Amino acid sequence: MKIDHTGIAVRRIDEAIEFYTEMLGGKLLHRYTSEKPGVETHIAVIEMENQIIELLEPTSKTSPIERFIRQKGKGVHHIAYQVDNLEEVIKDYENKGITFLKETYRINPYGRRLIYINPVHTQGTIIELCDYNSQ
């Protein structure tokens, strides 16, 4: 298992993109908006020296990113770990008593399947598990 990306909650995605690209030397790979219920977020994918950062700006008051910023402030929202087969890992973890936030399961526009582990198991850290088997 390796780190796939780090998600960062921001209020102004354009300013964040400018900082990560112009000041830190990152490269904007993708930018898109997901208006799916339970997502409602502008997303910018930035590559930094073979590491990926996802900048996340809420698009509505019901966005989980909006809720996160209200509760904890801007900053690191989640760490994503890439697994070989998401379905197998989910079954394995569930057999070990780990629960998932089932409503977070989805496939993003670039074919990445993902789901969040219930933070009660992670000392409050939001952890995403993902794979690219759907491509």
Secondary-structure blueprint:
Blueprint: E1 2-9, H1 13-23, E2 27-34, E3 41-48, E4 51-58, H2 64-72, E5 75-82, H3 86-95, E6 100-107, E7 113-117, E8 127-131
Parallel strand pairs: 1-4, 5-8
Antiparallel strand pairs: 1-5, 2-3, 3-4, 6-7, 7-8
Summarize this entry quickly.
By secondary structure, the protein is an alpha+beta fold. The chain has helices spanning about 15-25, 65-70, 85-95, and strands at about 1-10, 25-35, 40-50, 50-60, 75-80, 100-105, 115, 125-130.
How many independent structural domains? 1
Task: Could you tell me the CATH topology label.
Answer: 2,3-Dihydroxybiphenyl 1,2-Dioxygenase, domain 1
Radius of gyration from the alpha-carbon trace, in angstroms:
15 Å
Percentage of β-strand residues: 35-45%
CATH homology group: 2,3-Dihydroxybiphenyl 1,2-Dioxygenase, domain 1
List its traits:
single chain; alpha+beta; 2,3-Dihydroxybiphenyl 1,2-Dioxygenase, domain 1; eight-stranded mixed beta sheet; 8 strands; metal ion binding; MMCE/EMCE_epimerase; MeMalonyl-CoA_epimerase; Methylmalonyl-CoA epimerase
Q: What report would you give on this structure?
A:
- With 135 residues, the protein is α+β, with helices and mostly antiparallel strands.
- The chain has helices at 13-23, 64-72, 86-95, and strands spanning 2-9, 27-34, 41-48, 51-58, 75-82, 100-107, 113-117, 127-131.
- The longest helix is centred in the first third of the chain and has 11 residues, at 13-23.
- The protein has an eight-stranded mixed beta sheet.
- A hairpin with a 2-residue loop joins β3 and β4 (51-58).
- It contains three helices and eight strands; from the N terminus they run βαβββαβαβββ.
- The model has no long low-confidence stretch (mean pLDDT 94).
- The two termini are 19 Å apart.
- The chain has a single domain (2-131), classed as 2,3-Dihydroxybiphenyl 1,2-Dioxygenase, domain 1 (Roll), CATH 3.10.180.10.
- The radius of gyration is 15 Å and the shape is globular.
